[in-house]
Amino acid sequence: MTQTATLSGNDIAIAKSLVPALKEHGKEITTIFYATLFRDYPELLNIFNHNNQRAGLQQEALATAVYEAVANLDHLENILPVVKHIAHKHCSLGVQPEHYPIVGEYLTMAVQQVLGEQATPEILSIWKRAYNVIADAFIQLEQEIYRQGAEQPGGWSGFKSFVVKRKEQEGEGLIALYLEPEDGETLPAYEPGQYVCVRAQIDKFYHLRQYSLTEAPGKKHFRIGVKREGQEGSHAGKVSSYLHEQASQGDVLELSCPGGVFTLDHTLPRPVVLLGAGIGITPLLSMLYTLRERQPERTAVLGYAVRNGEYHAFADEIAHLVRDNEQVSATIFYEQPAVEDEQVGRFDRAGRIDAAWLQEQVSLDSEVYLCGPHGFMQGILTTLLKQGLKPEQLHYEIFGPALAFAVPQE
């Protein structure tokens, strides 16, 4: 990924001199970029999560991606993990090479508007070439992801029609959808922790959202967990509201091929720790099923935090998985247990996952997989790094724009 053939050493130095300004004004640049892009291409708005747009998370994530890419222009391999994460997201949304010139044009206009006189003709010329180098790196990686997805047994490109076979309530505000391919073909294998993108036509536009696969691969169906996002009215999640309120047995939805880089390495013998909060249980559940099938001898610890019994998703399945494998242990945390929760006894500890429990349960040779809200992730990662784990032992998935999440430093 060192595609700097169109840039001289001096060009790269000039481009990298923009990094402080891009970092300082990045969110302003990307806010203007999205506003003008969506004004002229309103159909593109529906690719993105509206709540993330309103909260500024998408703008912040793009700003981070821009200045990190420019800062590593001569060594893009340094940010390869981040590039892979974004590329998989792009492929699930159907991003194509022809989209990159459009993005480049509007991003350049935003840079020019915000930086003003600092964006001289020479700098803008180098900026455009630097953007093309970065775009080419993404395009090449994404075309390879598309190729692998289409050529694998049972794979496809673009979106494929699936029939809703079952719809089940799994705790307050969460449903599970069982989806089978309309053509009856065999499904492709996927890695535990990966997701599919659902494309639904709502209000004349297609809206796209990613949802984790919640079982081990090898079945005739995909199962996804869908949390109802946002509040009522205009701030409600478009796709999640549609799936909760309107999707029913027999309906047809379009899905992308499975993708994502937050995956369990089931070749390692080291202990595995799965830490989730709320909807974050969904990819971890796929990992638990896969451990049972492929590595029943591997020690695994699950820590799962929810508000109370009403929000305890997949409770029976988790209990069954733990009972079936003596190498797996689970601690269920209820932050605000109700009186009936105390009586039923389906949780182990009141409160949140804390440093004392992590110290007790997470050995220094563990591989740790985390998924949940930003605050949960921030606290867990900071604590584990302080307790002596290395960054390479910590694997995590953020629901939402990952680059808007500040990763703690060791």
**CA radius of gyration:** 22 Å
Could you state the order of secondary-structure elements as H and E? HHHHHHHEEEEEHEEHEHEHEHEHE
| CATH-defined fold name of the largest domain | Globin-like
CATH superfamily of the largest domain: Globins
**Main sheet, how many strands, which sense, barrel?**
6 strands, antiparallel
- Sheet with most strands: strand arrangement: 4-3-6-1-2-5
* Proportion in β-strands: 15-25%
Strand tally: 12
Second rung of CATH, namely the architecture of the largest domain = Orthogonal Bundle
Quick one: overall form? globular
N-end to C-end Cα span: 27 Å
Domains, number: 3
Protein structure class: alpha/beta
List the defining traits of the structure above:
six-stranded antiparallel beta sheet; six-stranded parallel beta sheet; Globin-like; Elongation Factor Tu (Ef-tu), domain 3; 410 residues; 3 domains; 42% helix; Rossmann fold; 12 strands; 19% strand; alpha/beta
